[in-house]
Amino acid sequence: MKRIALIVLLVVVAGAAWLVWRLTRGNGSGQELVLHGNVDLRQVDLAFNNNERIAAVLVQEGDRVVRGQVLARLDTGRLEPQVAQAEAQAAAQRQVVLRLHNGNRPEEIAQARANVESAQADAANAHQQYQRLVGLSQTSSGRAVSQQDLDNAKAALDVAEAKLAVSQKALELEVAGPRQEDVAQAEAQLRADEAQVAFLKQQLADAQLVAPCDAVVRSRLLEPGEMASPQRPVFSLAIVDPKWVRAYVSGADLGKVQSGMRAFVTVVSLPQHFEGWVGFISPVAEFTPKDVQIEELQSSLVYEVRVFVKDSAGVLPLGMPATVHVMPATTQPTAGSRP
User: How far is CA 308 from CA 2, 18, 90, 266, in A?
Assistant: First the structure.
């Protein structure tokens, strides 16, 4: 029985070794390249654009959030009336512009014509009265009409003719309509009012703090009741998609790595491996970062390699040290393709 158990154990170990060999070495041609690095940790510090008191914080540390999700809200009690006032001012100015474009009403033009006709009648009557008094004065050698009456009649005639001229100019203005300069000024004022409405509405929209991408809440930095500002982040988010390993390859092995090469990523804390591909190779050399553990301990020039990882379940820990097994070039698809 012991011999049978030993044989079964050897078979299991041999099968596991063969599976690992197939995963890491492909079809046996070439030699895999092992790189070391970390699952890249990229984070976003989110802050409100407005200076206002925080009304609600909707997520906790460790929560997974999706793009467009509302994370926190500001108090909008003072902003909403400002939006309503600006909208009312814009609506009033919009009617002013509409009135100027439509011009004067027919009734207003008809009224101006009636005023002209009335002024013409008054001027004709004043002219006849003055001529009558002048005739009487001449036939009576000045005895029937006093000079004062003649002066009064002449003054009344002048006033009537002046009123007629004013009425005629008013009719011309009614027919011509508003000046182009007045229309342009009203339109410019309307654009200013509409811009103010848009600005206040944007401030109202900014009162909601929205996740810019799929992420995990790393830190919750402010609480309801605190004063928010653009300089004070409310959350620190860790970006989870796309996810990649930032590894480093030495100059001697740089020629073995190409964009699009298949790779497998493993971490110490997880038993499974993760499929990936080489997506970026830095053209600039740098010294080995201190947090990267490689077999050679001495400082040397290396090149950054970014290996994208397929982790749809989101189980690969961010920032975790990782080992990348790059498959031999002879088993690769065409460069640049994604497996």
Answer: 46, 26, 52, 13
- pLDDT tier at 305 (50, 70, 90 boundaries)? confident
Contact 129, 84 (CB under 8 A): no
Give the tens place of pLDDT for each residue, 134-177: 887 777 776 777 788 778 888 988 898 899 888 888 887 777 67
Listing DSSP states for 167-209 in one string gives HHHHHHHHHH-S-HHHHHHHHHHHHHHHHHHHHHHHHHHHTEE
**Cβ proximity of 263 and 324 under 8 Å:** yes
CATH of the domain at 224: 2.40.50.100
Is residue 163 one of the residues assigned to a domain? Answer: yes
Among left, alpha and beta (phi > 0; psi -120 to 50; other), residue 72 is beta
Same domain as 153, residue 258? no
Q: What is the CATH classification number for the domain harbouring 315?
A: 2.40.30.170
| Domain, as residue range, for 60 | 44-75+208-238
pLDDT at residue 11, rounded to an integer: 54
* Separation between Cα atoms, residue 119 and residue 110, nearest integer Å: 14
Q: What is the mean pLDDT of residues 36-46?
A: 86
Q: Which helix (H) or strand (E) holds 308?
A: strand 301-309
Q: Phi/psi of residue 78, each to 5°?
A: -95, -20
> How many CB atoms are closer than 10 A to CB 263?
27
> Per residue in 262-284, pLDDT tens?
888 888 878 888 888 888 888 88
Both 161 and 93 in a single domain? yes
What's the confidence (pLDDT) of residue 300?
64
170 and 190 belong to one structural domain: yes
What's the total number of domains in the chain?
3
Are 128 and 142 contained in the same domain? yes
Whether 165 and 307 map to the same domain: the answer is no
